[in-house]
Design a protein that fits this description.
The complex is a heterodimer of chains A (260) and B (240). Helices cover 75% and strands 0% of the residues of chain A. Chain A is mostly helical and 260 residues long. Chain A folds into two domains: 37 residues; 218 residues, MetI-like (MetI-like fold). With 240 residues, chain B is mainly alpha-helical. In chain B, strand 1 and strand 2 form a beta hairpin. The chains are: A mainly alpha (260), B mainly alpha (240). Chains A and B meet through helix 4, helix 5, helix 8, helix 9 and helix 10 of A and helix 1, helix 3, helix 4, helix 5 and helix 8 of B.
């Protein structure tokens, strides 16, 4: 009987606080209000997940196609880096409103702008990952009689997976943060729980939405890390801690270079 | 043909907003025109410039120190990752809720966004400097401080500057929502549709995009100028 009593007591505790003047006083964080109103966060949360997942998914497909195209046609690399660099540099908020006369308010506009933002990060990482494939591995593949096409799909891309996913992770975490601006383009998402009109003064709402946004970034990152582990099981064989450490530094430096 | 024509119309309306004053959407005051554009651009640059200076002042020495000592690798990675997860809108909203509004407060909040990329890139850039170059400097009798400032720092310029460029882009982008915290940057055109109307909003978007691209190109030129000549030559050879 102890457990329900505690549950009851804690529910009372929060209820009491919500009954107090926390909301009227615009307190920093009114736990009771959040518990009573948690329903209102479900839709924006799901919209936000969709915005991020669709934008990063589309961004990955486009960047992947670009990377495959430029893998044999090297002259395309600087052109793609320049073009995606411009898209990356334009602030998302400005991008939304530049698109508005063309695509109108709504989720589509938000997704186009967010997708454009992710291209540079993902493309650079795929290109870097392919460039880092050891020559020995490629020579071995050629020695086995692989065509260039087979070499790309069976040797180079699988070996580049860690860096490719590292790029997707960076893009995803940044997109979770930036998608909160989608509310200004009528794209919904958790930003709608931070801004109402041009009012950002409801403290509890701001704190709750911020917490959810950071939690979502962490959750996406962990999921992608697990995907990466699963796709690179071959690495655990014969490679120890040392290899992992080198790898950490290498991804780190790749990330660092992404604007260079 | 109607869609492209309408499109052309809204963009020419926006351009018109930039170059000539008009009555505000609600009536009463004069808005738009080069005078106001210039005023808001200056404020945008001012708040972003202070923020970038603060992040440089904090992150550059720290990154140099950690990179020189070759410690704090995990800290540098964690700082970079955490920095990307900060939602800009929430940052400004939390600032307004718990700290206050105004140029100084907004600049400090924006500096928070600039620190992670500069810190990570400075660390990585210095960490990657060829140990033989450092050894040669030590053999010439340079002190640790001299090695850090006169050997490691110049050799790390390309990596550091790419971090500075990322920081500057983040800061300029976020300064666009600074009007929510009472600092009237170019974002005001975008956010206050009830004052500037649709043409003002589009004009704001064009101006913010142009500003970001201009700053990015300027910093790319600065990077080129700061890169030691020897390093530049090496890079050109490597790429050909």
């Amino acid at each position: 009987m102890l457990v329900p009593t505690i549950a009851q007591a804690s529910a009372d505790f929060f209820r009491d606080r919500s009954d107090s003047n926390c909301i009227q006083d615009n307190g920093a964080f009114c736990a009771g209000w959040v518990i009573d109103n948690f329903d209102r966060y479900v839709d924006p949360l799901l919209q936000h997940v969709v915005l991020v997942a669709v934008s990063v998914g589309l961004g990955f497909l486009i960047a992947f196609a670009m990377a495959v195209a430029s893998h044999r046609q090297r002259w395309l690399v600087p052109a793609f880096i320049g073009a995606t660099g411009v898209l990356y540099t334009i602030p998302s908020l400005a991008f939304f409103f530049l698109l508005l006369p063309i695509t109108g308010r709504g989720t589509d506009t938000a997704i186009i702008a967010l997708t454009a933002f992710t291209l540079q990060i993902i493309y650079r990482n795929i290109v870097a990952g392919l460039a880092d494939v050891p020559r020995d591995a490629k020579d071995a593949g050629r020695g086995m009689g692989m065509t260039e096409q087979q070499l790309l799909w069976r040797v180079e891309l699988p070996l580049a997976v860690p860096e490719i996913i590292a790029g997707v992770r960076v893009a995803t975490v940044s997109t979770v943060a930036i998608a909160s601006l989608a509310v200004f383009a009528g794209g919904g998402g958790l930003g709608s729980e931070i801004v109402t009109g041009s009012n950002i003064t409801f403290h509890t709402g701001v704190v709750t939405a911020s917490t959810l946004l950071i939690g979502m970034a962490i959750a996406f990152d962990v999921v992608l890390l697990l995907v990466q582990r699963r796709l690179t099981r071959w690495r655990s064989a014969g490679e120890g801690r040392g290899a992992r450490r080198t790898d950490l530094l290498r991804t780190l430096s790749r990330r660092a270079h992404r604007m260079g | 043909m109607t869609v492209p024509l309408a499109l052309l119309d809204s963009f020419s309306g926006a351009v018109d907003f930039i170059f000539s004053q008009r009555e505000s959407f609600g009536g009463g005051t004069q808005v738009g025109g080069l005078g106001q554009v210039w005023e808001l651009t200056l404020e945008h640059l001012k708040v972003s410039g202070i923020a970038l200076a603060v992040s440089l002042a904090l992150a550059l020495p720290l990154g140099l120190l950690l990179g020189h000592r070759r410690t704090g690798e995990l800290f540098a990675v964690a700082a970079g990752n955490a920095g990307r997860a900060i939602p800009e809108l929430a940052l400004i909203a939390l600032l307004v809720a718990f700290v206050g509004t105004g140029t100084v407060n907004v600049a400090i909040a924006l500096a928070v966004l600039g620190i992670p990329p500069i810190l990570t890139n400075t660390f990585v850039g210095v960490h990657q400097v060829d140990p033989q170059a450092v050894g040669a400097a030590r053999g010439m009798g340079m002190s640790e401080l001299q090695i850090a400032v006169r050997v490691e720092l110049p050799l790390a310029v390309p990596t550091i500057m790419s971090g500075v460029r990322t920081a500057a882009i983040n800061i300029i982008a976020t300064a666009t929502i600074a009007p929510l915290a009472g600092v009237l940057t170019l974002g005001d055109f975008i956010l206050a549709r009830n004052v500037y109307g649709d043409e003002g909003v589009l004009a704001g978007a064009i101006l913010v995009a142009l500003l970001a691209l201009t700053v990015e190109l300027t910093l790319a030129a600065v990077q080129w100028a700061l890169t030691p000549r020897g390093l530049r030559l090496q890079r050109t050879e490597a790429s050909t």
